[in-house]
């Protein structure tokens, strides 16, 4: 998945190939509660997409002398896990990317109900958010939980975890510190074993990342089990977590 430069013009008479998306835009129903959250909380917590890098310290209401590490979540769905983790880690900042409006509204409801101040949302394609709004080396972590596995072989090219995209993600993770601080991490999770195997192969092949486990990692305590995950586990299905660090 190699994103193109959206600001560059193609040579005269030549069109850019259509970018392959890892998602399709679904027409989901926005509930009354989600619509209210979008109206009332959206202006406070949804960051408009912009073609210039965010000032992360200015984006979150903290003492400017004491900034906090920032974690990006790509594709947060209905936001249950995102809100849980943000509440669990008030000392960290979170930016969630999601293109589907009902999910954005649902996460805004969580923000209001939990009184979260360390979470912001960008309703836009995460690849363009990386390219335009964030700077290399600026992220303490990236979460990608249960991305669409695109089961059919002809659709595998749509899977998010591909060599080029992982290389890009790794470049946005902060490198290890001079005093031995670990580099930023990439945490992926899937309930589809063939995709887990592809993830493990792709992540292991990226030289700027190292696996924190022998192969698959135990589920980190901060990632809650989803209701679909619990149902799958009861039915004997597996769930695979992968946690890699920048080197």
Automatic annotation (TrEMBL):
Enzyme class, spelled out: transferase
Similarity field: Belongs to the class I-like SAM-binding methyltransferase superfamily. TrmB family.
PANTHER family named among the record's database cross-references: 3-DEOXY-D-MANNO-OCTULOSONIC-ACID TRANSFERASE/TRNA GUANINE-N 7 - -METHYLTRANSFERASE, PENTACOTRIPEPTIDE-REPEAT REGION OF PRORP DOMAIN-CONTAINING PROTEIN
GO molecular function terms listed in the Swiss-Prot or TrEMBL record: tRNA (guanine(46)-N7)-methyltransferase activity
Keyword Glycoprotein applies: no
Chain's gene name: trmB
Listed EC numbers: 2.1.1.33
Matching SUPFAM superfamilies: S-adenosyl-L-methionine-dependent methyltransferases (SSF53335)
Name the record gives this protein: tRNA (guanine-N(7)-)-methyltransferase
């Amino acid at each position: 998945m190699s994103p193109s430069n959206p600001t560059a013009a193609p040579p005269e008479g030549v069109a850019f190939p259509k970018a392959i998306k890892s998602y399709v835009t679904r027409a989901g129903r926005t509930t009354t509660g989600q619509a209210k959250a979008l109206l009332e909380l959206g202006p406070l917590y949804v960051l408009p997409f912009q073609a210039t890098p965010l000032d992360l310290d200015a984006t979150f209401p903290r003492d400017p002398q004491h900034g906090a590490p920032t974690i990006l979540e790509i594709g947060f769905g209905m936001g249950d896990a995102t809100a849980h983790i943000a509440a669990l880690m008030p000392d960290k900042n979170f930016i969630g990317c999601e293109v589907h409006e009902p999910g954005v509204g649902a996460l805004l409801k969580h923000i209001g109900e939990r009184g979260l101040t360390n979470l912001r949302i960008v309703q836009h394609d995460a690849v363009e958010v990386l390219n335009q709004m964030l700077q290399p080396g600026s992220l303490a972590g990236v979460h990608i939980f249960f991305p669409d596995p695109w089961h059919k072989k002809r659709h595998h090219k749509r899977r998010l975890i591909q060599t080029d995209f992982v290389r890009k993600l790794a470049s946005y993770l902060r490198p290890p510190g001079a005093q031995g601080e670990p580099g930023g991490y990439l945490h992926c999770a899937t309930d589809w074993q063939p995709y887990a195997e592809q993830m493990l192969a792709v992540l292991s092949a990226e030289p700027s990342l190292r696996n924190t486990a022998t192969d698959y990692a135990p589920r980190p305590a901060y990632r809650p089990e989803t209701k679909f995950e619990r149902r799958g586990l009861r039915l004997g299905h597996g769930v695979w977590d992968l946690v890699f660090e920048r080197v």
